[in-house]
Specification:
With 347 residues, the protein is α/β, with parallel strands linked by helices. The chain has two domains: 161 residues, Periplasmic binding protein-like II (D-Maltodextrin-Binding Protein, domain 2, 3-Layer(aba) Sandwich), CATH 3.40.190; 147 residues, Periplasmic binding protein-like II (D-Maltodextrin-Binding Protein, domain 2, 3-Layer(aba) Sandwich), CATH 3.40.190. It is globular and about 55 Å long. The termini are far apart.
């Protein structure tokens, strides 16, 4: 018995030493959207640089920013959308990007930088992806439909649809449907969008959902979902029949587009390693791996386009009628908050 105890003690010590050995690797702490960076990319970075990546996920820009503002520090790289990059710049939450530490920034599409008016010279952010949400439809259950936001007004689909739990995405969709800018600062237009959502769309949806709409679509609870296509297609990848019957579209009226970027948080512990990761992402073959995995267009990296092999779910051209979401300023932002949190999201 004593020998067994001694053996177990020695074994435990060896295991602890092994774990501690692993812990000596430098660590990079990333805070990113769900379904947004392939495991293969993270693993290749870990192996190439002999580091360990600690990866946490968020479901909305609002949740991400609230956590950072509340002292949720410890992250090195975060992936906010453009309007929140601007907010975080104004609040002095970001480190400057040191271009001298990177060699692949020249691969970033200059057209995207022109759109990124909040930081066109990549002083605080580097574009990761330019895209848009849209609508996913189960064509077996909904064989006829318009490629329009009007689908959420269909009473025959009541309780079989979801809208994102995301203020600017849903409000932006309503504003676009009404013929207004997704970045409207006009109180009358914002009120009209609020009333459309409350009176026409909301009665027909099951819920506002930014977390589980993909799973709900996959198990048949929902036939029409508003969101990001990767969240759905990841859930149905092993169901050939459902894949065949699934159609994604960006509404013909347009809607919100986004530039998600990589930023380094002020006070990050691993600034140099963070620069290496950002530069690694924009290596053309790595970026191609990223977009091929999710069947995205290679929207932010020009050089990667020659390496892409997968057919994207939508093209950069499909984004022509969308409008980039930008920060609308504190006064208008308060109007959006009032409409969203004090009216639309009040059950």
């Amino acid at each position: 018995m004593k020998r067994n105890i001694v053996f177990l003690v020695v074994l435990a010590a060896l295991l602890s030493a092994t774990v501690l050995g692993c812990d000596r690797k430098p660590r990079l702490y990333i805070y990113n959207w769900t379904y947004y960076t392939p495991h293969s990319v993270l693993e290749q970075f870990e192996q190439e640089y002999n580091v360990r990546v600690i990866y946490d996920e968020f479901d909305s820009n609002e949740d991400m920013l609230a956590k950072i503002q509340a002292g949720g520090s410890g992250y090195d790289i975060v992936f906010p959308s453009g309007d929140f990059v601007e907010i975080m710049m104004r609040e002095d939450l970001l480190e400057r990007i040191d271009h001298s530490l990177m060699s692949n920034l020249g691969n970033v599409d200059p057209v995207i930088l022109e759109k990124a008016v909040y930081d066109p010279f990549m002083e605080y952010s580097v574009p990761y992806f330019y895209g848009a949400g849209g609508i996913v439809v189960n064509t077996a259950m909904v064989p006829e439909f318009e490629r329009s936001w009007a689908i959420f007004g269909r009473q025959d689909l009541a309780n079989r649809m979801t809208l994102l739990d995301d203020m600017r995405e849903v409000m932006g969709g309503a504003l676009s449907y009404l013929g207004y800018s997704v970045n409207s600062t006009n109180p009358v237009e914002i009120t009209a969008a609020r009333d459309l959502i409350n009176n026409i769309w909301k009665p027909n949806i099951t819920r506002f959902d930014a977390v589980s709409f993909g799973k709900g679509y996959a198990n048949g609870d929902f036939w029409v979902v508003h969101g990001f296509p990767e969240s759905v297609f990841e859930e149905i990848a092993d169901d050939p029949q459902l894949l065949e019957n699934t159609y994604f579209f960006i509404p013909e009226e347009g809607g919100p587009a986004y530039i998600d970027s990589m930023i380094i948080l002020r006070g990050a512990r691993n600034v140099e390693l963070a620069h290496k990761f950002i530069d690694f992402i924009h290596r053309p073959e790595i970026y191609a791996n990223f977009v091929d995995t999710f069947e995205f267009p290679a929207s932010a990296n020009v050089s990667a386009r020659r390496y892409v092999t997968a057919e994207p779910m939508y093209t950069v051209e499909d984004l022509a009628d969308t409008e980039l979401v930008i920060h609308v300023g504190p006064e208008a932002f308060e109007l959006y908050n009032e409409a969203w949190f004090n009216s639309i999201r009040v059950d």
